[in-house]
Write a structure and sequence with these properties.
The protein is built from four helices and 35 strands. It is mainly beta.
């Protein structure tokens, strides 16, 4: 692959940029850090200001890499990644806080937009202050096999990542956007959404009450992987925002694993119960495994209009859950399996689990003493977790845990094996 780099002469922090210690992995290895990418090779173009960045993006050709110099880039418009395959946009170095694309003054309501491109990488930078969609994956317009890696997405007021519906082809057969991968990212907002953040909701104040906000919202995808990310503080104005991971409109074969969802309105949602007009199933053969979900009371884990989906070996901690929605199903969920999980909090109402074909080998009671530090989202087990250690389903349903460590013998319940 040829490469175009946009690279600084020095890796020192630019003026006004400081290390973001809030999103650094712990010394003990949780959350997992992104291994550094190898240096790009090939054709290199070096720029260090907004004009050069936009010019390089608009002239992007197959095989090129844009690698952005440290600094804060006050973007006047969206950053288009269009009409080129085998390309990359990367921050210089591995510290994503050193390269900041700030869309607060943009004339557009979307940030980085992928259209008609395949085998694309966005990595090692920050996207912030976007009124609608921070990163847009136009799968309906040919965006496929896009990887988002080690990106900090901050203060985005509709969706941090949005993948719209792919309409059926001329033959009427379903179509999908394949190969999206989102890994080692931090998605967060500094505060709940409020009037003035989103032009759409400001123009339609009664429709969603300023709760039209979420993390990753993807439709019509095939093979989506969401792994090793952190989601925190994503809230609507009245704490009725959408899912941190929301997969629907005929999506299939998604894997959501080794993520931390902390203090958001909703965690992982497969399917949309309000969209009866969308053909069922909304999500097929998707698996949600080895995740930590901490205080996401609207729905910690949720399924609606699914087929052949699985929630296995997750740890949910919501001891004061006002709605008892540690797990919840609505509408048909053919073949849904929920097994090997820890639900630390109030007893889940029977009607919330009735939609699961298999609901077994789960621990559902307040076991706050089982975890290292729930206040910081660290739900790794301690030795006192006797009701979880070696109590997982047999035969095992997973091969590893939230830290990608292999499980041996009879697995522990939940996302983490005891160290």
């Amino acid at each position: 692959m040829m490469a175009i780099w946009i690279l600084a002469a020095t890796a020192a922090p630019a003026a006004g940029i400081t290390q973001d210690t809030r999103d650094l992995p712990g010394a003990s290895g949780f959350p997992r850090a992104a291994p550094p990418l190898p240096a790009p090779t090939g054709d290199v173009v070096r720029v260090s200001n907004v004009a050069e960045l936009l010019a390089a993006a608009k002239a992007l050709k197959a095989g090129q890499t844009i690698l952005v110099a440290p600094g804060v880039y006050a973007m006047p418009e969206q950053l288009p990644i269009w009409n080129a395959n085998d390309v990359a946009v990367r921050g210089a170095g591995h510290n994503r806080s050193q390269v900041v694309l700030d869309f607060a003054g943009s004339r557009h309501t979307e940030g980085v937009v992928f259209t008609n491109c395949q085998r694309v990488l966005l990595a090692d930078l920050t996207v912030q202050n976007v009124r609608h969609n921070g990163i847009k994956l136009n799968g309906d317009k040919g965006a496929a096999d896009v990887t988002i890696r080690n990106v900090h997405s901050r203060n985005v007021w509709q969706r941090h990542v949005k993948g719209p519906q792919v309409r059926p082809g001329p033959d009427g057969q379903p179509a999908w956007a394949p190969g999206y991968r989102i890994e080692f990212c931090l998605f967060e907002n500094d505060r709940p959404k409020r009037p003035g953040d989103d032009p759409y909701e400001d123009a339609n104040p009664g429709r969603f009450r300023h709760n039209y906000i979420g993390g990753i919202d993807v439709m019509s995808t095939d093979g989506l992987v969401v792994a090793d990310n952190v989601f925190r503080n994503i809230h609507g104005n009245t704490n009725e925002g959408r899912g941190c991971v929301f997969i629907w409109v005929g999506s299939r074969n998604a894997v959501v694993e080794r993520n931390l969802f902390m203090d958001c309105d909703q965690g992982v949602c497969l399917g949309n119960p309000s969209r009866h007009d969308e053909p069922a199933p909304h999500a097929t053969d998707c698996i949600v495994r080895n995740n930590f979900v901490v205080r996401c009371p609207e729905n910690n884990l949720f399924a609606s209009y699914t087929q052949g989906c699985r929630f296995v070996h997750n740890t949910v901690f919501d001891p004061d859950s006002r709605m008892k929605r540690l797990f919840r199903t609505v509408a048909p969920n053919d073949g849904l399996e929920v097994a090997g999980n820890i639900f630390s909090g109030p007893e889940i109402p029977a009607q919330f689990t009735a939609g699961a074909a298999v609901f077994r080998d789960n621990l559902n009671r307040n076991v706050a003493g089982y975890f290292r530090d729930p206040s910081k989202g660290d739900l790794r087990l301690v030795a006192a977790a006797t009701g979880a250690i070696d109590r997982g389903p047999e035969p095992p349903l997973v091969a590893d845990d939230v830290q990608a460590k292999p499980r041996r013998g009879r697995p522990d319940l939940g996302a983490a094996e005891l160290d």
